[in-house]
């Protein structure tokens, strides 16, 4: 069997789209060329990798050109790894590895210092150097059991027509992107795809509702949600399913939570992608009534150590020598990191490393997640306890990284 690995042609756009849908257990949307066109507005076809056998696509991998916020508020180019599928009839033949190697080589050739993904299966991508860089909490609550501080009198909420998201909400989203390491900005094609909101994407719920919080004329908060109707013994028990909730300050945060917990007939709230340090638990009268389920978020793969580490800000000064192992060769070596005034100078070195780790663990630390002590205890970072403590102090951030955009 001959397997051809390459990017798709323009004529294969629909075939790729259909192969991805089937790979994730869905039926491709029928007679929906607009959905195909919206997708390809977000992803240039030369960023795809497919495996082709006898003229048929049997495996897929896509790559969105994204901008990732890193500690300090700067943004860097990130290859957004996505749409990874292998047909069940062609598994266990090394196809995923071949596609991933080609994909990472393409990203490195473009000069993108990192790649990132959301994993449908968490056990797959560590072998390719992706480390868990952000976590999230799914928050579930019954608003009949909790109260929150009232919305400030100088704020107001406003429903936004989906057709106006690009003009009204997109500028706000980009303005707060520097606030959280891990934040992925949205270009206009992504907003157009959100606006379309096809029925097959709603999971049986309503169309997406969009609400902003304003202070005067300024937008300071945005929430998007769906509604799932339900009645129990003639009592309304519907759910507000929050898709995104982003606030510029604590008053906007309170106003957004006030809104989603006061939707008539929908007392239950489910927010699947909240920050792990979301202040909601401190704001409520009954924190025990809030269920928080932790899970993994964005995985990051460092492709070029020096530009990746020099681009981010550090909250503690100091120096350390990192020894990095990378089976694919992109990040291997020893690197001297000197941090002064929050800025790093990173150079190759022959010095003995203070700490050693796989590139996977470097990705896990990159956005500021406080993971070094646990990784050391697990044997995944090697070095003295003092050196690992210093590593943790240098790389972690006071605010937990958060990625509110799945791709």
Write the topology of this structure.
Elements: E1 4-6, H1 13-23, H2 33-42, E2 49-53, E3 56-69, E4 75-86, H3 95-109, E5 114-118, E6 131-132, E7 135-142, E8 155-159, H4 165-168, H5 170-176, H6 188-196, E9 209-215, E10 218-228, E11 231-232, E12 235-236, E13 239-247, H7 250-260, E14 268-274, H8 280-283, E15 291-296, E16 298-302, H9 305-311, E17 318-325, E18 333-340, E19 343-348, E20 355-358, H10 359-366, H11 372-377, E21 381-383, H12 385-395
Parallel strand pairs: 4-5, 13-14, 17-20
Antiparallel strand pairs: 1-2, 2-3, 3-4, 5-16, 6-16, 7-14, 7-15, 8-9, 9-10, 10-13, 11-12, 17-18, 18-19, 20-21
Keywords:
single chain, 407 residues, alpha+beta, Aminopeptidase, Nonspecific Lipid-transfer Protein, Chain A, 3 domains, seven-stranded mixed sheet, globular
Explain what the structure shows.
- The chain is 25% helix and 32% strand.
- It is of the alpha+beta class and 407 residues long.
- The protein has three domains: 4-112, Gcn5-related N-acetyltransferase (GNAT) (Aminopeptidase); 137-295, Gcn5-related N-acetyltransferase (GNAT) (Aminopeptidase, 3-Layer(aba) Sandwich), CATH 3.40.630.30; 304-395, Nonspecific Lipid-transfer Protein, Chain A.
- The strands form four sheets. It has a seven-stranded mixed sheet, with helices on both faces. Strands 8-9-10-13-14-7-15 form a seven-stranded mixed sheet.
- Helix 2 runs antiparallel to helix 6.
- The radius of gyration is 22 Å and the shape is globular.
Quick gist of this model?
This protein has 407 residues and is α+β, with helices and mostly antiparallel strands. It has twelve helices and 21 strands.
